[in-house]
Design brief:
This protein is of the alpha+beta class. The protein has helices at about 40-55, 75-85, 105-115, 150-159, and strands at about 10, 15-20, 25-35, 60-65, 130, 140. Strand 3 (about 25-35), helix 1 (about 40-55) and strand 4 (about 60-65) form a beta-alpha-beta unit. It is globular, with a radius of gyration of 14 Å.
């Protein structure tokens, strides 16, 4: 087991394994997303954060998840198209994953262990966010209700 996110890999929308090592040295915000959720408009705020800070070494990694109210039922391609057409999402989006239960993605197991939330070692809902410093260490977890703009000061503190 690794202490940083860099030891993990994630599948892109085409199912190709991508090492998170490529994000070494960047501040990351890792988010489980959904395209048919009450929090879906947060994509606009996330994109705004990404645009504001990407040139300073900040990246958002989006992970679609259909575990909460079946709010992301589409294929990876459909999800990506929705995000781009409706919210102009340009930050990296990965393939659909599970974040809780036996089949939870190993990256999200690590994130939950490093920053437990109100439900302990479980993700409460879509748009739970994890802030990771330039060393790949999980710094903070944010609830789904936390608007992206409320995270800006924490991001700035790590850049």
């Amino acid at each position: 087991m690794t202490d940083t996110v860099y030891g993990f890999a994630a599948k892109d929308k085409a199912g190709k394994e991508t090492s998170l090592e490529g994000y070494r040295g960047q501040v990351l915000l890792i988010v489980n997303t959904a395209s048919k959720c009450g929090f879906t408009p947060q994509f606009a705020g996330l994109e705004s954060l990404y645009e504001d800070y990407k040139d300073q070494g900040f990246t958002i990694l989006g992970f679609p998840c259909n575990q909460f109210g079946s709010q992301d039922p589409g294929s990876n391609d459909e999800i990506m198209e929705f995000c781009q057409l409706n919210y102009g999402v340009s930050f990296p989006m990965f393939g659909k994953i599970e974040v809780n239960g036996r089949d939870a993605d190993p990256l999200f197991k690590h994130l939950k262990d490093a920053a437990p939330g109100t439900l302990g070692n479980r993700i409460k809902w879509n748009f739970t966010k994890f802030l990771v410093n330039r060393d790949g260490e999980v710094i903070k977890r944010y609830a789904p209700t936390t608007k992206p703009e409320a995270i800006a000061a924490d991001i700035e503190g790590l850049l």
